[in-house]
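Forum > Structural Biology > Help requests

Title: Can anyone predict the 3D structure of Efflux RND transporter periplasmic adaptor subunit?

Hi all, first post here. I have the sequence for Efflux RND transporter periplasmic adaptor subunit but no way to get a structure on my laptop. I'd be grateful if someone could post the structure tokens.
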Amino acid sequence: MRLVKQIGLLAALSALAACSAEQAPGTAASEKVEVGYIVVQPEAVPQTLDLRGRVVPLATAEVRPQVNGIVRRIAFAEGREVAAGDVLYEIDDAKFRAAYAAANAALSKASAATASAQTTYDRNKALAQTNAVSEQALEDAQSSLLQAQASEEAAKADLETARINLDNATIRAPIGGMIGVSTVSVGALVTENQTDALATIRQIDPIHVDLVDTSANLLRVRDEIDAGRLSRDRGTPTTVALTLENGKPYGEKGEVSLADMVIGETTGTFIVRATFPNTQRVLVPGMFVSASIDLGTLSDAFLIPQRAVTRGDDGKATVYVVSADDKAEQREIVTEGTSANDWIVTDGVKEGDRLIVDGFQKISDGTDVTPVEATIDDNGVVGQELAPQTGTEAGQ
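Reply #1:
Sure, ran it for you. Structure tokens for Efflux RND transporter periplasmic adaptor subunit below:
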């Protein structure tokens, strides 16, 4: 009886082994991970540089008096626009008018003295030709004439100084722009070239935006140009688009007007200045903005969905592609910024690669995969058709 039980146990174990052997292929097949992929193709990708910056006036003029006196009148409205040459302040000019009148009288006296000296010299010169007067008398007459002419020139200079002081009693706008708050009121005493400005004028149309860039970015862009990957038409200006502090785009584009080629010793940065039209006065000096500079076009670059890119602890970016024998292959890539929901990749992938965009969370380098072609929309959402089930899998 015991022998019969042993034979039955052996038969059961044999049957179980045979069943396991039959299921082994199915188990191996189930170890493959289904992944979605897209085929990457090179394309020309616009390259931009995103920077932060601050709005600064096109020009700034601090208005200061050039003469001493009492402010008699303020002729502008604070916070409004003024044109170059507009009257801003009037200083009591009574003493300057008196000084001008005195200088004018002094000039008339000097002119009369010159005329008299000229007459005396002309007469002595004629008489000297007939030896009616001595050479000494002629020389004295000539000396008196020269002194009278010099006095007349000095009187003219004094008159011009008096005229300038009289004109400076009326303070005018040196430039056009928006004028700020007046720091003095009517009746205030002001002094020549005082430290405190009476008011400040800022030109804001057009207006500048000073952007801060790093020397590392400068070198990277130059490397791209030298390598022939970044190209642009040298005949066209470099355009800049702005985003305001509230996240809305600024309505008009500007142009890069200069780049300061001196790198800050402590910050490692330099200034890129762009100029924008500002007819609606949206941009105000001191405002922070974000800017996107059009650097040109990257030729033969790849747009890789951000969901397909991972970064290690060392910061290096990697992706998975499907190899020729349907295995997951991990590759390190080089990125050059972003475009919408994609990374711009210049190295690490090639034309026709099957880039894994879905299911890569379950794989590692060398994993056997079942690739399924997928699509991915502008929002980074993957759509794919799963592989059809076999008859055996459907029965299970």
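The mean pLDDT is 85. The domain at 31-43+300-391 is CATH 2.40.420.20 (conserved putative lor/sdh protein from methanococcus maripaludis s2 fold).
Shout if anything looks off.
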